[in-house]
Amino acid sequence: MGGDQDRKVNGMSTEASALLETDFVPPDEDSLEGGTDREADYQKLLARLCAAAVVRRYEAYRDIAWDDPEMRVDPDDPRWQLPDDHPLGATDWYRAQTPEKRSRIGLNMVAGFCYTGRIFEGVLSRGLLRFAATQPHNSLEYRFAYHEVIEEAHHSLMFQEFVNRAGLPVPVVDADFIQATERVAEYGTTFPELLFIYALGGEDPIDYVQREGYRKRSDRHPLIQRISQIHIVEEARHVAFARAYLRVNVPRLSEARRTEMSLVVPGILGVLSSLMMQPPQHIIDAYGIPPDVIDEAFTNNPAHRDLVVASLSKVRALCEELGLMDAEATRLWEEAGLLPA
Ligand SMILES: [Fe+2]
Ligand SMILES: [Fe+2]
Fold first, then answer.
1. N or C: which terminus of the chain has fewer CB atoms within 10 Å of its end residue's CB?
2. Of 146, 129, 127, 145, which Cα lies nearest the Cα of 184?
3. How many other CB atoms are there within 10 angstroms of residue 146's CB atom?
């Protein structure tokens, strides 16, 4: 399974390749800053990202040892319990629940986020396919967009497999939802800059949470640790691509288009960061989490707000750099709770 494949692919032990992966520094996201020939730098970055997508790539059913005994998912495993520094884990309500309920809530939240991740990736992939369809021959944007779709497909497979193994209820989205998200997918051809903001709006918060979890918790379940590790490595490329695309293309937009973009961005980021960082309604209902506990943990929790703000700090700095935060846009960021208090 995964370990054998790592040996075959990388010629090194699983431990060594894991170390390499955690220490993996993605191609410099800021390499486009200050260069004299931005377009040439952009093409070089795309070429590096495409090359990395060939040599450091993972497959959901090849590189995760799903059936190893240590990977088994047991809802009563205390490792699923939320840590004390988690917004919900820190509440008196959560700590007063039985150990069984605490671990089920934790596991169900992981499964819920995995499912949200797969839905987000599905919408993004639909947009990327539209984006790629209009690219000319020899386009590295075309090629990398396809690498990204392939990677997202494997992420979605691994997220869904985790949901299946968790065995706890996660409601499936309906056809209306797919229809409603069509507008985002259409950005791939009508307004690619907004598609890449959508990409960052989901990827930056997920990445932030996964890196923090990966770094902090030595007692984490090995299955979620492996899923996070794979995701962190590949998302670094997606984030680098989205940022570079925005750096090159936003300055080329008309004034009117840039203004339109600046007013839409906080809405996209607000919706995505709450989807990625707050428990879905079905979990609140299933475990009877009282409204005042949700309020204490998320809605009116300065520590949670700091977390959301921190998870979006890179995309916020990019928006500032690109002139997307005039007074009106800044007010919308503020209203969406995306700025430091
Ligand atoms: Fe992904
Ligand atoms: Fe991604």
1. C
2. 127
3. 16
Chain Cα centroid distance, residue 295: 24
Q: How far is the CA of 12 from the centre of ligand 1 (A)?
A: 25
Helix (H) or strand (E) holding 310: helix 302-311
Asked if residue 296 is part of any domain, the answer here is no
Q: Which ligand is nearest to the CA of 117?
A: 1
CA of 238 to the centre of ligand 2 (A): 5
Which ligand approaches the C-alpha of residue 200 most closely?
Answer: 2
Give the mean model confidence (pLDDT) for residues 48-74.
Answer: 96
Structure tokens at 290: 């009282």
Distance (angstroms) between ligand 1 centre and the Cα of 236 equals 10
- The domain total for the chain is 1
Q: Give, as one character, the DSSP assignment of residue 26.
A: P
How does residue 13 score in pLDDT terms, banded at 50, 70 and 90? very low
Residue 24, in any domain of the structure? no
Report the percent of the chain where pLDDT is more than 70: 90
Q: Is the pLDDT of residue 282 over 50?
A: yes
Residue with tokens 């992420």: 155
* CA torsion angle 290 294 299 301 (round to 10): 120
Q: Is 144 within a domain? A: yes
The token pair at 105 is: 């809530």
Residue of 184, 204, 202 whose CA lies nearest to 193: 184
Nearest ligand atom owner, CA of 154: 1
Other CB atoms within 10 A of residue 137 CB: 5
Confidence of residue 34 (pLDDT cuts 50, 70, 90): low
Ligand nearest to the CA of 230: 1
* CATH code (residue 196): 1.20.1260
In terms of residue numbers, what domain contains 120? 38-66+75-254
Asked if the model's pLDDT at residue 230 lies above 70, the reply is: yes
Predicted structure pTM score: 0.89
